Amino acid sequence: MNRFVALLLAVLCVNAFAVDHMWDIRYTFGPDTRPSPKWAVGLGVMNNYGTDFLFPVNFTTALSREWNIGGKVNVQTTNKFEHVIVSLDIGGRYLINDNNFIELDANFGVNRNNSTAVVVTFGNEQFISKNFANFYELRAGFLQGVTGEDGYVKLSGSITPTLYFTSFFRTFIEINLSGSVGNIKDDFMIDIIPKFELVLGSYRIRLDFDIGVMQEKNNDVQTIALYVIKAL
């Protein structure tokens, strides 16, 4: 536990921020261990402390106890809304059991033709105690939307230690490694994402801070995101 606290403090002192694009190719707002309610809608906003914004809007539904599906529209603006880029993600998740799931997402550019991607995800959550759990995720992304022109497949793996403070509040920190096979030199990242989530009735409110390390070209990017999810 002392080593974990030391790592957390070191992470929060890092000034380099980045976002791995494949991290956001999913119909949820980032990795999510909770099954979808019967119906839910969500709205988010991400900003780089400047003039660039990302506005994701999603919906999810539970077809059965094992099957969840959903979709998400991302509206990205740059240079004070001078450019607007829109993409659509459609995905589905099969819950193998209470601790494991497999997910498939397909991403398409709406007003551009270079963002098509398919991502396969395997997720696993392990409760170490009543108030502490680790969430693991392995992902593989295909096509130019995630690999770039020179890549073949992009791989990522993450671990997310999570502390539950009652059923209404949790805090967690995601550590994500990713890189493209065929373009590993220029496309290898380590992302650190501290998060805080509050549950108020049928609402879930989450605050994310995206911190990237190891890539100098990403050191000038700082992002913060807020997501609100409403169960219907």
Q: Return Rg in Å.
A: 17 Å
Distance between the termini: 38 Å
Q: How many beta-strand runs?
A: 12
User: In one word, what is the shape?
Assistant: globular
Write the H/E string, N to C: HEEEEEEEHEEEEE
Briefly note the structural class of the backbone.
mainly beta
Largest sheet: 12 strands, antiparallel, barrel
The level of helicity is under 10%
Mean of residue pLDDT?
Answer: 84
Question: Which spans have pLDDT < 50 for at least 5 consecutive residues?
Answer: 1-18
Strand composition percent: over 45%
Describe the structure.
The protein is mostly beta strands and 232 residues long. 6% of the residues lie in helices and 59% in strands. The chain has 2 helices and 12 strands, in the order αβββββββαβββββ. The chain has helices at 2-12, 144-147; strands spanning 39-47, 53-62, 67-78, 83-95, 100-109, 117-129, 132-142, 153-165, 169-181, 188-200, 203-213, 223-231. Strands 1-2-3-4-5-6-7-8-9-10-11-12 form a 12-stranded antiparallel barrel. A hairpin with a 4-residue loop joins strand 3 (67-78) and strand 4 (83-95). It is globular. The model is unreliable at 1-18 (pLDDT under 50).
